[in-house]
């Protein structure tokens, strides 16, 4: 098998060149025909090279920033090429909402990378599935058991325990190491992961024996396999994504890496589920996602149930962390705004700790949350969709087969909508519309039929965490932290954990 690889690799270069040149002329012919057949013009096109298109201009791995710069020259909607793939990029709220709501029926199909096809078992999770019966059924189960209003009331006790644990750990650090910066992520991420496990399978897990791997894994190792590894794999680039007609050429290093992530993830999830099935068989039922799926979701296969549970775990343990970590960084470097938030909390709550019931009376806290979503949106680019029938967007004709990229970062940094968008100013959201409408203004949780099912939980956990942390501690940045704002690959997740120095404000709540 290994001897067969060099010949394939040897012909790879000529094949790319020949296939690319052929495709270049074919696509040019198709574009000419489309211009003749449509009454509307095609979007402005970013000039690129034959065969590879604009790939070289995206090599810095921050495409959302490059897309935003292009919008300044070519407008809020334009086309580009990523290898052989034609892509239209949307960079304004109006055009993005048009795509997600009014023209959704024409562009509702997901376009997944090779890595995501493997890691999602070809769209077997809600976030990456097409808008079909599976999506509707699975999202219904997720809302009923975990993320809907009634389910959120049931899981309130888990959220309260999580926030109390977070505050207690920060206080313990401040009492023993008052002058040493604390690693914010180590504490918050661990507790958030525990919450997601309780909601998904009914309990936090300190360790588990995984028969398929032949080892006992600690909680941190479980987190690495279920959350961190797949997150890294999801943004892993396979050059064949840009040249689908050459998918027959091996990319062995990529394939082995992703398949290993998949295998380890499957093994750990099966071990977690098997343990809970024994608990259920003993007659002990818990209000969690797994128990609901096993008793109610008779149309779903075991593999689909496994994937849906994994989705609940990975999403609960990521988006909220990104939001709260950035919010605490911004507040730590801005004592005036931190004090304004503290004053609001004290005026509303007095000496009592903040509770979820008080959130609706804290408009500046809501502003902190929404402004953090705007400047540091957890999803910079909406997962790609493609046009399965010719559509019209922003006054342009969008040909069938075109990929659609909605650049959330670009929308939220549009100077035509946001005054001085590079600045973090929670005041821009104070005195405006209701909070649910502000969610759609920043596009942080999508919109239309595919609005994120976890928006309510993300808002509850993020706001109560920010409020309690500011209420109980004074925050300031560790040395060098103000400029430590690099992000991970294609994401907006901080590359390095936030390091802060905290001082307790008074007695423990």
From TrEMBL:
Major localization class: membrane
Pfam family, one: p450
Cofactor(s) of this protein: heme
Compartments, as annotated in UniProt: Membrane
Entry keywords, A to Z: Heme, Iron, Membrane, Metal-binding, Monooxygenase, Oxidoreductase, Transmembrane, Transmembrane helix
Bilayer-spanning residue ranges: 6-26
Coiled-coil region: none
UniProt KW Transmembrane helix keyword: yes
GO cellular component term of the entry, any: endoplasmic reticulum
Entry's Gene Ontology BP terms: ent-kaurene oxidation to kaurenoic acid; gibberellin biosynthetic process
Residues holding heme: 452
PROSITE patterns: CYTOCHROME_P450 (PS00086)
Membrane-topology annotation of the record: Single-pass membrane protein
Similarity field: Belongs to the cytochrome P450 family.
Name under which the protein is recorded: Cytochrome P450
Provenance organism: Isodon rubescens (Rabdosia rubescens)
